[in-house]
Write a structure and sequence with these properties.
Keywords: Repeat, Transferase
Radius of gyration: 24 Å
Protein name: Transferase hexapeptide (Six repeat-containing protein)
Organism: Actinacidiphila glaucinigra
Helix content: 10-25%
Number of strands: 25
CATH topology of the largest domain: UDP N-Acetylglucosamine Acyltransferase, domain 1
Strand content: 25-35%
Family: Belongs to the transferase hexapeptide repeat family.
Shape: globular
Order of helices and strands: HEEEEEEEEEEEEEEEEEEEEEEEEEHH
GO molecular function, one term: O-acyltransferase activity
Oligomer: single chain
């Protein structure tokens, strides 16, 4: 009897593994089929979607696509919400409301909600669950529920090359400069100068770079060594310790260019 029990348990374990593989393989197929690109827009009709841009499946809430323009080579993660207008079906005029430059990355679960212009420059990278909006609740009338009061709205600009950490919130009227780091969980309002680091709620500048003084306060660690031009993907993979001989070749190349 114990032998039969082992046989049955082995068969059950094999079935579980087989079902697991099928489920994961099927889900990958669904993810690929449900992703959105310029070649395969599905039911979405964006005002513009550039070559190489892809929206992962499943998407979050998306409406007002006519007023959403996506640049080239953007990566939009799973469950990202993109909305133009307070609700679907509104006519927002001739101009785009949400504009993403080339190479923008929106991490999983992020939200971009706009009724006034929200503009991302090129190569803006956002971690997961970033929230960018041109609209905020008002509470002027102390006797009226806040949700019933007309919101305040103002345009938002995010400069090229910036990085928004996980959970950052960008409020109406924010104007973020070029190559700005927004720390995880920061709440940004107002203007942020180029080449600065902001953190906190509300966010404040904690570090800034200028041509005359460099970084103030100074960076605590030395800058990473840049990847040399012409490095192959095999050599880059070697950085993870996969192939020591390729890594040695890359180190020699770095030393020769130093």
């Amino acid at each position: 009897m114990p032998k039969n029990e082992n046989l049955f348990s082995s068969a059950a374990a094999w079935r579980r593994r087989a079902v697991s593989r099928l489920v994961h393989r099927g889900w990958r197929w669904v993810q690929n089929a449900g992703s959105v690109s310029a070649d395969r827009p599905g039911p979405l009709r964006f005002g513009r979607i550039g070559a190489g841009t892809r929206l992962a499946f499943p998407q979050g809430t998306i409406f007002g696509e006519r007023w959403i323009h996506l640049g080239e080579c953007c990566i939009i993660g799973e469950q990202v919400t993109l909305t133009a207008g307070m609700m679907p079906g509104l006519d927002l005029g001739p101009d785009p409301v949400v504009r993403l430059g080339n190479g923008v990355v929106l991490g999983r679960g992020s939200h971009v909600i706009a009724s006034r212009p929200v503009v991302f420059g090129d190569d803006v990278y956002c971690g997961p669950y970033v929230y960018v909006t041109s609209d905020n609740h008002s509470y002027d009338d102390p006797h009226e529920p806040i949700g019933r009061q007309w919101p305040r709205s103002a345009p938002v600009e995010i400069g090229s090359g910036s990085w928004l950490g996980a959970g950052a919130v960008i409020l109406p009227g924010a104007r973020i400069g070029r190559n700005v780091v927004v720390a995880a969980g920061a709440i940004v309002r107002g203007e942020v100068p180029d080449h600065s680091v902001v953190a906190g709620a509300p966010a404040r500048v904690v570090r800034r770079w200028t041509p005359e003084r460099g970084w103030e306060p100074p960076l605590r660690t030395p800058a990473p060594r840049p990847v040399p031009a012409g490095a192959t993907h095999q050599q880059l993979a070697a950085l993870a310790g996969l192939e020591p001989e390729l890594l040695a070749g890359l180190e020699e190349k770095l030393a020769s260019e130093a």
